[in-house]
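As the work plan foresaw, the team has encoded backbone shapes as discrete tokens. One protein thus recorded appears below exactly as we store it.

:::
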Amino acid sequence: MSASFDSAVFVPDGLLAGNAGLLVGEKVTIITGQNLVRGAVIGKITAGGKYNLSLSGAADGSQTPDLILAEDCDATGGDKEAMAFSRGDFNQNKLTLGAAHTVASIKEGLRVKGITLVNSVGA
């Protein structure tokens, strides 16, 4: 079961790996055709400013990891708003990475944005 901001009860899923007081979230628009889960590493499409799963081989701006999705988001039927984390400490083992991204390849870029990835084994 994944955590959701729409849920009446929060069920920890191990994504958060530090002081929850450091979390900063923002509302984003996930582009149509995406069905993403909490913990997906998303990138911003330069033209239009919408987000999708960050793929290393993309050439639309979204190849650069920018945020971590804070809730499941099914945008298969059209663009959909969702919450995403722009700062905080996260368990790298609970992330969903796009094609050709690895934790090593995204870690430093996210760190300079205020997103710290830690290896929380067993969480």
In short: Residues 29 and 81 are 4 Å apart (CA to CA). The beta strands are 24-30, 35-36, 41-44, 51-53, 65-69, 73-74, 80-91, 115-118.
